[in-house]
Sequence to fold (415 residues):
Amino acid sequence: MLNFKSEILQILKERDFIYQGTNIEQLDQLCAKKSIVGYIGFDATAKSLQVGNLSAIMLLRWLQKLGHTPVVLVGGGTSRVGDPSFRQVARPIMSLEQISENINGISKVFSKILNFQSGSNKALFVNNADWLIELKYIDFLRDYGCHFTVNRMLSFESIKLRLEKEEPLSFLEFNYMIMQAYDFYYLNKNFGCILQMGGSDQWGNIVNGVELTRRLIGVEVFGLTQPLVTNANGQKMGKTADGAIWLNPDMCAPFGYWQFWRNTDDRDVVKYLKKFTELSLNEIGKIAELKGEEVNEGKKILADEATALLHGKDVLAEIHETAKSLFGQEGGNNTAVSTISFEESKLPCPLADLFVFSGLCNSKGDFKRLVSGNGLSFQGKIVSNPNITITKDDFSDNTVLLSLGKKKHLKIIKN
Fold:
C-alpha cells in the first residue's frame, strides 16, 4: 500500500483502517492540502449501536482529530427500506415510530466520541429522511434511476451472493443502493462532502454514490472502506449469534462493557488497541512484546482506554473496584459485593440479558454454556433453565443477586 502524504490517510493505514478506496492518490493529495468533509451512514435498526459499529465511529473521530469535518448520517429514510448488503433475508419492515425511537437511541453515542459543539470542523448530524421522504417517486426514477443499470447493480458482490444462494431480493431492497447513492450526491451538493466511508460490505453502495455524483454535477468525490473487523476465530466482531455488545449504557453497563474488552483473546489485543484506542503506535508496540500472563496487562489497558473513550474516565475507578471485589484482581477483597444499576423500564427481560448486561457473561451463548454446567446462580439458586424471564417482582428490595461460580457475585439494583 502507498505511503501517504496526508496525515489522516497515513494514520488510517498504520491502524489498519484502509481496505479499498476510489482514486485514493487524488484523495491523499486533497487531504494533504486542505480540510475535507467526510461521512458515514448509520441505519436505525436498533435502539443502540453495537461494538461492531465502533470502528466506523473511530474513523469519524480520527477524521475530526486531524482537522477534517465528520458528518454522521442517520438513515431515517433508508431504514424504511433496509440495506440488503450481504444479508440472506430481508430486514423486517419497521414502523415509523420504531425508527424514530431507534434514532433517538443511537444518537446518544456520537456526542461522547465526536465534538458537535465548537470549532471550524465541528461534527455535523444529519438525517436522510429530511430529503428522501420529500422526493417524488416518478421524478426520482426519471432523474436518477437512469444513471443505474441493472447489469451493474447485479455485479456487486453483496447482491451476487444473495442471488447465487437463490434467496429472494425484493424490489424494495433493490432501491436501497440508489437511495444511498443519492445521499452522497445530496451531501456533496449541500455540505461539500467529498468522502464516504464504511465497511468493506458497503463498497458497491459507495461506488454508486461516487459515480452518481460525478455524472450529475461533474464533481470528483471519493469512497474509502475499511476491512471487516473479525476476532481471532474469524467471527464478525460484536455481531455474533450469541448477542450484541451494545454501546448505550442502559443496554450494557459500563462494567459489562469493560469486561468485554478485558476478555479479549490474546491474539486480538494489538489489533483492537490500534482500532479502538488512541494509544500511540509506540505504546502499542511495547504491549505487543508482552508474553504469557503479561498479556493481561495489555488487556486491562485496552479495556480502560476503550471504556474511557465511550463512558468517560470517571467510571474507571468504580469499575476497578468492582473487578477487585468480583474477581479478586490486584489483591481485592473477595467478600465485598459490588452493585450496578439497571433501568426498571427494561423489565421484563430474559435472565440472559441481565447476566450479559452485568458483565458476568460475555454473551447469550456464554450464558447458555454456563447454565448447562450449573455455573450461574440467581438469588442464591442455581439457574437450570436458560429461558427464564425476569420481572419487577423478582427484585427483593429493588435488588437481585447474580453469581458466577461460588465466589463471584454482583448485585443489580433496579432504578
